Amino acid sequence: MELNPKTDAICPIFFKKTGNEKLEQIGSSVVVKIKDRLFLLTVAHITDFLNHGVLFIPTTDGLSQLYGNYSPFKIPTGFRREHDKVDIAYFKLNEKLSSQIHPTIKYLERTDIHLTESLIENDIYTFSGYPVSKAKNEDKKYISEIFSYTGYAASKSEYDKLGYDNSFHIVVHFNRKNSCTSEGIKQIPPHPKGISGGAVFSWPKDIKTRGKEPKFHL
After folding, report:
1. Residue 118 pLDDT level (bands cut at 50, 70, 90)
2. Looking at the predicted structure, is the pLDDT value of residue 36 above 60?
3. CB 135 within 8 A of CB 146
4. 109, 134, 164: which is the final residue of a domain?
5. Per DSSP, what are the bridge partners of residue 34?
6. 134 Cβ partners below 8 Å, 6+ apart?
């Protein structure tokens, strides 16, 4: 199954620690246009890096500093981010950065996003983003590669066991060592670290129509 070209809306995020000139890719985001402004939807543990340095995204000028208003989900006092089961954040890009975003990155419209989902056991979902292990720095040029991971939804009892809510979270079965390409060729994909903040696509629930275009789900 080929993925929806809306994966073009996924944008890698890079980080430079204060006092260090080295850039590293740390996560992913999704570019969405709401009215006349561009937003980056991502996860709060990525915006937490701003406490230690600067974030960058690809633009027509190379990797440019991520400017704009942002809002991460705040964790309660006494808890750590790893305990956060919401973990969401967004950037509202300023106008200059919006106009310079790299031309290979295409934004989604608000109508492309489905905010609600009725999850049923064995529903199929695809998670897409930029694994950090595929990021390279060649001749002062940063190269990254998008990957997608597809699995079927866990049962309600498995959600309860893990402490997640199937009306809010999406938990899927995925065996990395027993994966295959869309052509059915067995291949172990890179570790998914780095796809955090990327897109989640829900496939049609009717198995007869699952070959059709998936929908982006937030």
Report:
1. low
2. yes
3. no
4. 109
5. 37
6. 144, 145, 147, 190, 194
Closest by CA position to 195, among listed 210, 174, 213: 174
pLDDT at 196: 93
Spatial separation of the C-alpha atoms in residues 47 and 54, rounded to whole Å: 10
3-state SS record for 27-60: EEEEEEEECCEEEEEECHHHHHHHHCEEEEEEEC
Q: Please indicate, yes or no, whether residues 62 and 115 belong to a single structural domain of this protein.
A: no
Based on the domain organization, do 16 and 93 belong to the same domain?
yes
Q: For residue 116, give both structure tokens.
A: 């609600």
